[in-house]
Every structure is written in structure tokens, then in C-alpha cells.
Amino acid sequence: MTSFCPKTLNISVIEDGMSALDFMNQRIEKFKKLGNRDAFHTADLGDILEKHLRWVENLPQVIPFYAVKCNNSRPILALLADLGACFDCASQSEIQQILSLGVTPDRIIYANPCKQESHIKYACIHGIQMMTFDSEDELDKISRCHDNGKLVLRIGVDDSRSSLRLNSKFGARLQDCCRLLERARELCLEVVGVSFHVGSGCRDPQAFRDAISASRKIFNMGIELGFKMNLLDIGGGYPGSKTFNPKFEEFADVIKFALNDFFPTDTGVQVIAEPGRYYVASACTLAVNVIGKKVLTDKSSNKNADDDMRAAGIFMYYVNDGIHGSFNMDDVANPKILYPQKKQALSCHKYPSIIWGPTCDSLDNLVEHCVLPELETGDWLLVDDMGAYTSVMGSKFNGFKEGDTHFVMTQASWRKMQRFCSQRSISERAEHLL
Description:
Helix content is 33%, strand content 23%. It is built from 12 helices and 19 strands. The two termini are 22 Å apart.
């Protein structure tokens, strides 16, 4: 395993008492002097560390396989690798990226139910055994391209309580599962478990209990057909924003009770999950610069003075990141709120405002309506909870490039991480001796 080295990964270890927001404000002041007004992210790796510790405390029996697609920044992946997390990969490229960190193949699940044959062959050559399927066609591809797969049947579950539903595209219908398992047996393939995904931005912890209950039925079906079913993958959908309700602990409580009811520890079933947004959403803050401004006046008003015009109109601001960049995914569960970097007086007057992205696309609208103090070209706006499905989904439309990400970690977080990794290493050595 390649050790997590802040210097090698270009991570700034900042003094205790200094926050990631303080670091970001310092960068903005520095950029002002340099004339650099490009948008940029600041990623607080200490926040990700705390999320991992929170997971271990609340769901110790569930092994996290981080969803690489959510944010594939190398410092984040290296941190999670050193913390002992495993990885959910969806393509050959993601598998290559994780293997390059020194992660062993047994810590990877190829959790894409529809894979390109050459990617399956790559996984086989590099020892990736765990992979999902939800169709006969996928079973046929795997039988041709992989000679030692440990297959996990992805089932469709109720995702109506989530903001981003996935089961219209992935997941076998429960009535089709028996046929798929029989086909796997005909092909002499090894099915070891069941997976599901309740959808991204799940609002109801009960959705996990319902899905775990459904998984038990498919487990029993597989056992009756002669498969050694020993793996349950409870997918993703866990909250990543600090303001999201219900809180992660409420999800964890429901999951623990459901596992105890349907998959008690004496069954020997290993339980894994695929958290993505949970780990990284709140870690990143985006800074965007106001690159243009327009005032829409009320045509019915005869007022001409600037103050009167502002009172009667709407401000439109143009910023240098948009829907073709960090705002590519419309997060209904956790809408983005842009706020001024400069603190405004409480008595400061605020105006109806619209915020646009930088491209020529008329749909590049970030906020249709909000209330802001009057801003000027060159001012900065900040956006919290920008770590999940943001820059990783950006394009280069109109020639606008992805902004830089500055990774930070306080000295206290660095020490806490070292202690955790040291304790984990001692525990692993003790288990090996046993």
C-alpha cells in the first residue's frame, strides 16, 4: 500500500485553529493580488476522516466500498485507502486508478451490472473477482470473459423515497431472479450474494429495511439452488450534507436492526455498502467569481435614480462555473445555495437575484431566484456541499476548463489519522496471528 503522504499528494497541512474556510479566504485574497479569478474548490480531508470514523462507530459490521464515480480525486482515494476503506468501481479506468494506489483486488467490487467485455477481461487479468449482474446477457458475457468471478445479483428495490432513482435502469425484478440464478448455474458461474441500491438522496431509512428484507428472499432462493450465498451489498444512498435530514445515525440504526433480523451474525454473511456522497459531499466548498452583472428594471416603473431602479428591478449575475462544470447534476435533495464570500452587515439591503453560468447555453442557470446583497463584478460567491458529483461530471463545453482543487487537512486531523491507521495496522496483525 502506498502511504498517504501530504507532500507527495500536494496537500496543505494547516495549523490547528485554522479552518478550510479560512484557507479558502486566504487563497481568494492571494488570487486578488495576482489577478487570478478562476473558480476553485477547497477540499477538507479532515471532514472525510471524520465521516469514516463516524461510519466505523455506527456501522462497524458493514464494510464501506467507496463509490469512486462520486469523486475520483487522487488525494481522496489515497486517504480512504489508508483508512482501510474498499472501493466500488464502475469501469476499467476506475479499476486502474484504484490498483495504482496499491489497493489489492479483493478490496474492489466491479459494481456495474452492464459491463463492456474488454473491461470484464481486464478485471479478470488483474484479479478483480467480485462483480454485479442483473441480466442473462451479462451472465453470458461474464462466462466468456472471466473464469473466476464471484457474482452478486443486483435486484431492483423500491426507490420512490429517493431524489435520484436508479432502478428504472438497473436491478433485476424479483420475479426474474430465480431464472437468472438458474442461468448462472447452467453456465457454472459462482453467485455469492445480492446487492441493491435504494437510490441517491434517500429520505426514508425504512427503505433500507424493506430492501434488506427483499434480499433475504433472494438469498434463500440462491441457497436452494446450491449457491454459497455469503455477501450482501446494501449499496449507497446515505446522506452526505451536514444539513440533510434524517441524519446518518438514523439510517444506521434502521440498517443494524434489519441486519440483525434478516442476516444475523451467526449466518456468516459479510455485509458491504457503497457510500459515495456520504463521504465527500460536505468536504468540498466551491468559490466562484462574478464575471458579469445586469439589472432588469421594472418597465412599469418611472423611477430613474439608481437606488429606485435597484428597488424595482432584479439583478442577474454571471459566474465562472455552471451546469457544464461543477453544477452538472441537479441535486433536488440538497439544492446548492450560493452566498457572498464577504460578510455583509445584517442591515444590508438584499435584492431578488438570478445566477447564470459562464457558457453560451441559455439553460446554464444555477439559481432561478434567490435574494442577495448587491454584488459587483469581481466579487466571490461560495457554495458548500460540493464534493459529490461535481467536477467529476464536468465537461469542457465552450472551452471552459475544470477549476483547481486545493486539498487541506489540519494538523490535528493528520495526527488523528495516523493514530487510527496505526491502531488498524496493529489490529490486522493480531487477526493474522490468530
